[in-house]
């Protein structure tokens, strides 16, 4: 199945979005020393298109580490394993330094990135998403992981960037 990785700094709502998309989490054996990758994989589908989801926020590191390093590990796992990266930011906080850091790493990924602006719980707040244009991933898509608003638009954008499965082409 194609893989969608949810990436973003802490507290932007990655887990909330993951839980909305995925019915159950599955564990896998970790293959990176010191990094726990349990409970971050799940399955989802949108408009009949199935895909796997990775919540990189669920990655834990054994050793005390500055946040920048955790972001790097999260982004690297996404870059290695994802077909599409779902970059989540917090529309209420605006662009932060940590967002810029994530963006910088993702720009080197050469993978499709969909930029989702979370915590836009009300239509009147849509304008809060505009400032995220400057992260350089095209049109920011406002949504609310908690209330489910805009998640359809987000998934439309994600699915549109997924590779077409080989069996669909036959
Ligand atoms: P993560 O660290 O990126 O996985 O973020 P979480 O999913 O743990 O969410 C961080 C905080 O943001 C929690 O207190 C959530 O309840 C809150 N949150 C997540 N999504 C939304 C949303 O759509 N709207 C609002 N208002 N709060 C949200």
TrEMBL record:
Protein name from the UniProt record: GTPase Der
Summary of subunit composition and partner proteins: Associates with the 50S ribosomal subunit.
Family statement: Belongs to the TRAFAC class TrmE-Era-EngA-EngB-Septin-like GTPase superfamily. EngA (Der) GTPase family.
Function text: GTPase that plays an essential role in the late steps of ribosome biogenesis.
Taxonomy of the source species: Bacteria, Bacillati, Bacillota, Bacilli, Bacillales
EngA-type G domain segment(s): 2-166
Sites where the protein binds GTP 1: 8-15, 55-59, 118-121
């Amino acid at each position: 199945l194609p893989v969608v990785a949810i990436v973003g700094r802490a507290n932007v709502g990655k887990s909330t979005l993951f839980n909305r998309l995925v019915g159950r989490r599955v564990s896998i054996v970790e293959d990176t020393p010191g990094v726990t990758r349990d409970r971050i994989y799940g399955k989802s589908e949108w408009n009949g298109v199935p895909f796997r989801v990775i919540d990189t926020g669920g990655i834990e590191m054994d050793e005390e580490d500055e946040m920048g390093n955790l972001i790097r590990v999260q982004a690297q796992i996404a870059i290695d394993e994802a077909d599409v990266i779902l970059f989540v930011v917090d529309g209420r906080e605006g662009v932060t330094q940590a967002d810029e850091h994530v963006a910088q790493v993702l720009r080197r990924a050469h993978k499709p990135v969909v930029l989702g602006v979370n915590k836009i719980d009300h239509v009147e707040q849509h304008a809060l998403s505009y400032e995220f244009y400057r992260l350089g991933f095209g049109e920011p898509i406002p949504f609310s992981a908690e209330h489910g608003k805009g998640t359809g638009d987000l998934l439309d954008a994600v699915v549109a960037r997924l590779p077409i499965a080989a069996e669909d082409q036959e």
